[in-house]
UniProtKB/TrEMBL annotation:
Keywords: Electron transport, Membrane, Mitochondrion, Mitochondrion inner membrane, NAD, Respiratory chain, Translocase, Transmembrane, Transmembrane helix, Transport, Ubiquinone. PANTHER family: NADH-UBIQUINONE OXIDOREDUCTASE CHAIN 4L, NADH-UBIQUINONE OXIDOREDUCTASE SUBUNIT ND4L. One of its GO terms (cellular component) is NADH dehydrogenase complex. It comes from the Eukaryota. The keyword NAD applies. It is found in: Mitochondrion inner membrane; Mitochondrion membrane. One of its GO terms (biological process) is ATP synthesis coupled electron transport. It is an enzyme of class 7 (translocase). GO terms for molecular function: NADH dehydrogenase (ubiquinone) activity; oxidoreductase activity, acting on NAD(P)H. The gene is ND4L. This is NADH-ubiquinone oxidoreductase chain 4L.
Amino acid sequence: MSNFLLYYFMIIMFIFGCIVFISTRKHLLCTLLSLEFMVLMLFMFLFFMLNFLNYEGYFSMFFLTFCVCEGVLGLSILVSMIRTHGNDYFQSFSILQC
């Protein structure tokens, strides 16, 4: 019974991460942090679900690899945005400028 409470807790935390991801529109860094929080909750849910079903955790290594690649891409976009615009505000970033 306590495993199901843990699953519900992780689902609720994932939903909170989605809400923060949708509502954060000022800084790119806050958006990336909420995205990483959602990925962490998905990893925990996947890990506990694989342990509950007595499967190997081999798939979780693939998931972590893709999560690291996603994080690196987000940080590279953040660094290039700071180098070109001087900050990470979405208001100063315009699609019309090259």
